[in-house]
Every structure is written in structure tokens, then in C-alpha cells.
Amino acid sequence: MAIATSGPLIRFNPATGNELGRVEVTPAEAVAGIVARAREAQRAWAKTSWRDRRRQLERWSHGLAREADSWAEAISREIGKPLGEAYGEVATSLDAVGWTIRHGGTALADERLRAGRQSILLIPDARVRYRPLGVIGMIGTWNYPLFLNAPAIAQALAAGNGVVWKPSDLAPLVGCKLQESLDHAGLPPGLVAMVQGGADVGNALVNARIDKGMFTGGLENGRRVLTALAANGVSALAELSGFDPAVVLPDAPRSATVRSLTWGAFVGCGQTCVAVKRIYVVGDAAPWLQQIAEATRALRIGDPASAAVDLGPLISSEARDRFDQFIRASVARGAKVVVGGQPRPGPGWFFDPTVLVAQSAEPESALAGVFGPVVLVRQVRDIDEAVTAANSSGFGLAASVWGRDLARARAVACRLEAGTVTINDVVAPIGHAAAPFGGTKSSGFGRIHGVHGIREFTQTQVEQTRRPGGLRPQVFPYSPRVVTLLRTYLRLFHRSS
Ligand code: NAD
């Protein structure tokens, strides 16, 4: 929990409830000035060469790498995740930043598009440029406070933009640490600036004449932010909630699949946007349910700082209460609790990892958008029913298919409505530094990472050049030769059979 008062933002350790630290909230009325300063710095930054930008990003990245241990500890402490998960986040964040440093120049290089046969019509070749947008306003979430912020900041800067970003008010301390790392990298003053606070500060950023908004968070707030950006005529990249399905085919190897699915459901205490929330077993679900329940009962829950644990707490008392309500609503609609289903007494905001079973789609609808340690298992008759169930949700972030016959699994994966589909794997593949990540349907639009991600922070400009003078048919007065030329062209290239 973090409390925004008129004073500082106070952050508590989610595993103990003890105060971790406090940071100053940025006054909402100061945000427009911070964006204006970033724009000033960005004008000069946009004129720098790729080599200069790369050198500065490298310095930043080296600083992050030198501090890898303290990053992992800071993430584990503030988010309440096991140290191994926090180290995984640091590694994938550095990989993603490193991708931009190694490949950003190529991804942003001009492209030449030849006119081909259209040169007969004297249409010139085209050069495509990827130009900076200006100042990117980023509003972030807390569950992967480094991975979801640092790579996007790197891509926006690499593309020649300034960035004003707001970390989540539930991860303000990691936010400060990230901004400090940027400040120490020697980037131009004001080019990347952090603002701290809650919805009011986020709202001020959205309305501060930014050139593009990037929002990562829940669907409801995301829609509010997107509506405000649209009213200002500002484009957006939206990374919103998921409700990810896993389709288990009859030939899936049970033990290995159960191990992966249990991890995929409860990694980050289920507070992972691509965590598995719904498992559809094609055929007899009973043995699967039994093994998933056993694997869940074996999980070790506790304070990641004090013991070897698999699952930490939820991020705040409000998040735990909200999660509890989701579970109750699903049970009220017919879900049966197989394991867990209850909050744990404090200190800390723990909730027993929960396995639900359902006979129909009703209990699932009550869970849509849930963010916490729960997975629901449902038996389905055949693949068609599994695909229909998986696609019935309004969300479409990621989905997985499990089976030995890879051709069949791929055929199922192709039918799933999700930004990422994985076969016999889950969550971890999102760490692929070059693979574009993002959702479909209510899970958002736009992509982060790789070539697609970096170009989200650019505007595409086309330049076409013709030598001065020379032949040019497209001018007044019209001559019959133009008609002859076009008729010949049509006959040659578009005559229907
Ligand atoms: P949230 O929507 O509560 O908050 C996200 C951010 O928006 C925070 O920084 C918050 O201060 C800010 N905010 C809230 N209301 C605002 C407003 N009206 N105007 C401007 N800013 C506002 O979400 P959360 O609790 O931080 O994150 C959890 C959600 O994020 C989950 O639903 C999860 O699935 C989703 N998520 C998605 C991805 C993805 O990549 N698609 C990644 C991680 C988390």
C-alpha cells in the first residue's frame, strides 16, 4: 500500500506492512512545466547522431548492470516477489535495453522503397524515415517495475524522444532508483523526468501536451486515460489487463505440463499480466485437477526476505480485498474451491494460492480481470469447445497450448485471439528481447520491444525526390500522350484475364 496525502507518498513492505520509505509527490500543476523542459531538451537530442545516443544509453545500461544485485533486492522488497523472480526481471530488462543499444540504429535507419514498375508512370522511389515524436508520457504499473519501464524508456530515447514518466504509486521507490540511474548516466538534463503520484498526477501528465501516451495498467483506468488522450488528439500505446487461457490437449505430458502451468498461474503471486488464469482441459480433467491441486498445496508462501518462498504477498491490502471479492463472486456463480480461497492473517497481504473448478462458463465471467493467485480449471469436450471458451473473454493478452503433437498444437494456437501464443511454455517467453509484446481486444494495442516497439515511438515520414527539370507528365496542360501512357500501363499490368 502507498498512501498519497498532501505530503509524501508512503510505501509499505507488502510482506510485513512496515514502512519502506517515502517520496515527494509531484504537484499536479508542475507536470506541464516538466513536460515543457523535456521538450526543450528533446529538440537538441533529436539532432544527435545514433552513435551519440547509443553511447549514452550504453553508459546507462552499464550502470544498471553494475547494480544488478541491488536492483533485484529493491524489486523483491518493494513488490514482495521472490529474489529469483526479481533477478529474472533484472536480466530480461537488461536484455531488452541491450537489444535497443545493439539494434536500434538498424531499426531506425531510413528505408528505401523502389517504385518498381510504377517508375514507368514516373513515380519516384521513396525513402521512409522514422522521426522522433517529441515527448512521450509514460504511465506505469508496479508488478514488473523495471522490465515494464526501462526498456520502453530506452526505446523512446533511442528514437530521439524525451520522456516524462510516472511510476506506479505502488512502486515509487524502484521508480526513484530508476530515475537516479538515468540521471547518473549523463543524459541531457530534463530529457527524461519522473513525476510521482497517483491518478491526479497521471491525469496531469496525460493533459500536459505530450506527443504520445503509453499506459500500462488496468482496463478501467486505461480507458479513462485513452479517452483523455483521444480528446487531446494524442495517440497512445496501451498495455492493459489479461485473462489468459491455457488449452491442454489430450496428449500433453501431465507432470511437466502441470509443473509449468502451476508456475504460470502463480508466478508473481498471480500478479503477472500474462499469468495463466483459465485452464481448459480437453477430455477428462479430473487427473489434471488433482495434480494441479497437489502442486499448489506444495507451494511455500511467505516473506521473500526471510525464507525460501515460492509466493510472496499481494501488493496492497486494497489489492487483496479486491482479489477476495473476485473469488467470492466466482464462487457465487458456481465455481468450487479446490485449494486456497482465503486471505491469510497478517502481517502482510497474503492470500492462499487458489484453484477453482467450474462446470460452465458462468464462474469465469466473474473472474475476468482478476489480478492475484488464482487459476480456474474447466473440462471441455473437444478442441473446438476449448477454442471457443478461450476466445470468449474480452481480453486477449497471451494464451498457451499444451501437447506433444506440435503441428496440432500450432493449429490450435493459430485460432486463439491473443497478442502472444506460446506452445508448451508460458510467461517466460515474454522476456524475448526482440519479440513484440502487446495485446489484442481489451488487452490493448501497440507493441513494446524489438523493431515494432521502437517504431511505436516514431512518426513515419516519406521523402520522394525527383531531379530538377526533366520529363514530368503529371502537369498541365494535359496531353493525349498521358492517356496513351496510362492506357498502355493498364493493358500491360492490369488487363484482366
Ligand atoms: P492501475 O490501472 O490501477 O494503475 C496503472 C497506472 O495508472 C498507475 O501509475 C496509476 O497511478 C495510474 N492511473 C490510475 N488512474 C489514472 C488516471 N485516471 N489517469 C492517469 N493515470 C492513472 O493498474 P495497476 O494496479 O498498476 O496494474 C495492474 C493491472 O495492470 C492489471 O490489470 C494487469 O493485468 C495490468 N498489466 C498489464 C501489463 C501489460 O503489459 N499488458 C503489464 C503489467 C500489468
Structure description:
- This protein has 497 residues and is an alpha/beta fold.
- The chain has two domains: 9-240 and 448-459, Aldehyde Dehydrogenase, Chain A, domain 1 (3-Layer(aba) Sandwich); 244-431, Aldehyde Dehydrogenase, Chain A, domain 2 (3-Layer(aba) Sandwich), CATH 3.40.309.10.
- Helix content is 39%, strand content 19%.
- The strands form five sheets. It has a seven-stranded mixed β-sheet with strand order 13-14-15-12-11-17-18, sandwiched between helices.
- The protein is globular.
- It starts with a strand and ends with a helix.
- Bound molecules: nicotinamide-adenine-dinucleotide.
Compute the number of structural domains: 2
The first-level CATH class name of the largest domain = Alpha Beta
The average pLDDT is: 96
Unreliable stretches (pLDDT < 50, length at least 5) are 1-5
What oligomeric state is this? single chain
Specify the structural class: alpha/beta
| Count of beta strands | 21
Indicate the radius of gyration in whole angstroms.
Answer: 26 Å
Largest sheet: 7 strands, mixed
Distance between the termini: 69 Å
Strand order of the largest sheet: 13-14-15-12-11-17-18
Identify the bound ligands: nicotinamide-adenine-dinucleotide
Annotation field: number of helices: 16
The fold-level CATH name of the largest domain is Aldehyde Dehydrogenase, Chain A, domain 1
User: How large is the share of residues in beta strands?
Assistant: 15-25%
Outline, from the CA principal axes? Answer: globular
What is the CATH homologous superfamily assignment of the largest domain? Aldehyde Dehydrogenase, Chain A, domain 1
Could you say what the CATH architecture of the largest domain is? 3-Layer(aba) Sandwich
Question: Helicity level, as a percent range?
Answer: 25-40%
